[in-house]
Amino acid sequence: MISAIILAGGKGKRIGGNKPFKKFGDKYLIDYPISILKKLKIPYTIVTSKNLLFKYNNFLSFDLIDDFGPLAGILSGMRTLNSEWYLVLPCDCPFLTEDFINYLIANIKFAEKRGCKCIVPRHRNGFIEPLFSLYRKDSKIYLNKLILEDKRKIIYLIRELNPLYVDAEKFKNVFININTPEELRDALKHLIKK
Ligand SMILES: Nc1nc2c(ncn2[C@@H]2O[C@H](COP(=O)(O)OP(=O)(O)OP(=O)(O)O)[C@@H](O)[C@H]2O)c(=O)[nH]1
């Protein structure tokens, strides 16, 4: 019923390129979401740009449009795997947990009853986490439309999907992601403390 799309394209400019293969502890960043998805037996595809140096050939999909950003990556992943719901994740989420994913999945029935086409964690301050969210397969229609209109912000998608917002507060560490070398160092300290 659910498949996952790991977004691993983009330029990773702030971290100096090829973000998925930055070393983090004894693994690469991209290995963290993969290992959690494997434990949960959730099928996944890794969506990346053709120009990114990639070490894993299995499970790869490529962006249908270069440099468009996450929306094109999500649509590309949806075209690769057939599923009712898609879990979208970034490649830089070393503190992702099984509990968090199970929590999102537990909200699917309720979302379907209310006609919600996405399930999005929201923090107390209103900040949302669209790259740690579930999207129904019929999001594809809206993704196609937004891409044709060159609307790249993910908030445009969320607005079309009658979102079910769920509590992000109890999973705060899950959303630690890594954009710069400094953030990589800080997150490593966090990993050591764990
Ligand atoms: N497939 C795909 N993934 C993308 C694309 N742009 C960003 N991502 C992924 O989306 C997540 C969030 O990306 P950002 O951190 O906003 O952007 P980034 O390109 O990684 O980094 P910067 O260039 O420093 O902004 C990361 O997992 C990226 O790998 C894209 O065009 N295609």
TrEMBL record:
Residues given in the record as Mg(2+) binding sites: 92
One GO MF term attached to the UniProt entry: metal ion binding
UniProt key word Magnesium: yes
Domain MobA-like NTP transferase: 4-148
Catalytic activity: Mo-molybdopterin + GTP + H(+) = Mo-molybdopterin guanine dinucleotide + diphosphate
N-terminal signal peptide: none
One Gene Ontology cellular component: cytoplasm
Pfam families: NTP_transf_3
Binding-site residues, GTP: 7-9, 19, 67, 92
Primary subcellular site in the record, as a coarse category: cytoplasm
Localization in the cell: Cytoplasm
Keyword Glycoprotein annotated: no
Cofactor: Mg(2+)
Enzyme Commission designation: 2.7.7.77
Superkingdom, taxonomy of origin: Archaea
Key words, A-Z: Cytoplasm, GTP-binding, Magnesium, Metal-binding, Molybdenum cofactor biosynthesis, Nucleotide-binding, Transferase
GO BP, sorted A to Z: Mo-molybdopterin cofactor biosynthetic process
Comment text on domains: The N-terminal domain determines nucleotide recognition and specific binding, while the C-terminal domain determines the specific binding to the target protein.
Family of this protein: Belongs to the MobA family.
Role this protein plays: Transfers a GMP moiety from GTP to Mo-molybdopterin (Mo-MPT) cofactor (Moco or molybdenum cofactor) to form Mo-molybdopterin guanine dinucleotide (Mo-MGD) cofactor.
Name used for this protein in its record: Probable molybdenum cofactor guanylyltransferase
Species in which this protein is naturally found: Methanocaldococcus infernus (strain DSM 11812 / JCM 15783 / ME)
